[in-house]
Design goal:
The complex is a heterodimer of chains A (about 110) and B (about 110).
Chain A lengths: L3 E3 L3 E4 L5 E7 L5 E8 L3 E8 L6 E2 L7 E6 L2 E6 L8 E8 L8 E2 L3 E5 L1
Parallel strand pairs in A: 2-11
Antiparallel strand pairs in A: 1-3, 3-8, 4-5, 4-9, 5-6, 7-8, 9-10, 9-11
Chain B lengths: L8 E5 L4 E6 L9 E6 L6 E6 L2 E4 L4 E4 L5 E6 L8 E7 L14 E6 L1
Parallel strand pairs in B: 1-9
Antiparallel strand pairs in B: 2-7, 3-4, 3-8, 5-6, 6-7, 8-9
The chains are: A mainly beta (about 110), B mainly beta (about 110).
Chain lengths: ~110, ~110
């Protein structure tokens, strides 16, 4: 089975801190994605990557950046965390650019105080 | 990018068949239709994917009419454990997939 692992299940940070959310997949998938999920808004795409060192903006990239130095790892960075970035963050991967079957991690619930 | 429209919520009694319909009027020729299920505090899980007509697996069936402007996810004889949010997605056919979710349908199964 494909495993997508997110480094933290719960995270509490202070406003202005730099925050790193890590995601690792073990199936050599090409595509990786970061979403955030908020009540009433569903899942919104922040960034995605279709190859090492490649990235594309999703629907809500403002306030975020990403890094993909290795194929299996995709990091989401909040340069200066703000309270409106309190959310559930979900990482996903898919095998190829044409494949829409996503495999999700369990999520990181981030609280910014 | 094809936008999807689903009912916000549905209720069903245990043992009934549940049909959730998704509208995607501007679906592109190469787009597939994919459904996911999400339980509270978990990431979404792939259920089923199809292009046209009917697809069935051990979990659900997916019905797609000839014009492909809508699709219906059918869950046979639901149980309490099927209470979840169900998302319909239509893929971006531009090569590299920007997979965008809508707000989904919250299904509540009642004993």
């Amino acid at each position: 089975d494909v495993k997508v692992t997110q480094s933290s299940r719960y995270l509490v940070k202070r406003t202005g801190e730099k925050v790193f959310l890590e995601c690792v997949q073990d199936m050599d998938h090409e595509n990786m994605f970061w979403y955030r999920q908020d009540p009433g808004l569903g899942l919104r795409l922040i960034y995605f990557s279709y190859d090492v060192k490649m990235k594309e903006k999703g629907d809500i990239p403002e306030g975020y950046s990403v890094s993909r130095e290795k194929k299996e790892r995709f990091s989401l960075i909040l340069e200066s965390a703000s309270t409106n970035q309190t959310s559930m963050y979900l990482c996903a991967s898919s095998p190829t650019p044409e494949d829409e079957k996503l495999f999700f991690g369990s999520g990181t619930q981030l609280s910014v105080l | 990018l094809a936008k999807t429209t689903q009912p916000i919520s549905m209720d069903s009694y245990e043992g009934q068949e549940v049909n959730i319909t998704c509208s995607h009027n501007n679906i592109a020729t190469n787009d597939y239709i994919t459904w996911y299920q999400q339980f509270p505090s978990q990431g979404p899980r792939f259920i089923i994917q199809g292009y046209k007509t009917k697809v069935t697996n051990e979990v659900a069936s997916l019905f797609i009419p000839a014009d492909r402007k809508s699709s219906t996810l059918s869950l046979p004889r639901v149980s309490l454990s099927d209470t979840a949010v169900y998302y319909c997605l239509v893929g971006d056919s531009g090569g590299y997939q920007k997979v965008t979710f809508g707000t989904g349908t919250k299904l509540q199964v009642i004993p």
